[in-house]
Amino acid sequence: MSRLIAALRPIRRNSNKPVLGDSYELHYQAGMNPTRVFVRIINDDTLVFTWDDFTYVGGNPREFQAAIDSVLESSRQ
């Protein structure tokens, strides 16, 4: 999970539009505060993600996809 969260950086800007369309849904809990994070890969250099009620643009899509692939591979074993 830490690898997935790390791939959401750096944030370039925020947006008032929620993530729409196909996206990954992450369930994250820090302490007593659970949250859902919706992440959509827009292109080779941009992620859009909604964390709580805020939407951000930025991140590293290649790292995020590599982390997703790693999770999927380990779940098949």
* Spatial strand order of the main sheet: 1-5-4-3-2
Strand content: 35-45%
Number of strands: 5
Strand/helix succession: HEEEEEH
Gross morphology: globular
Sheet bearing the most strands, described?
5 strands, antiparallel
Mean pLDDT across the residues is 92
Explain how this protein is built:
- This protein has a 5-stranded antiparallel beta sheet, with no helix packed on it.
- The protein has 77 residues and is α+β, with helices and mostly antiparallel strands.
- The protein has helices at 2-6, 61-76; strands at residues 11-15, 24-30, 33-43, 46-51, 54-58.
- Strand 4 and strand 5 (54-58) form a beta hairpin.
- The model has no long low-confidence stretch (mean pLDDT 92).
Compile the SSE list and pairings.
Elements (H helix, E strand, L loop, with lengths): L1 H5 L4 E5 L8 E7 L2 E11 L2 E6 L2 E5 L2 H16 L1
Antiparallel strand pairs: 1-5, 2-3, 3-4, 4-5
Summarize the structure.
Helix content is 27%, strand content 44%. It contains two helices and five strands.
Key attributes of the depicted protein:
5 strands; 77 residues; alpha+beta
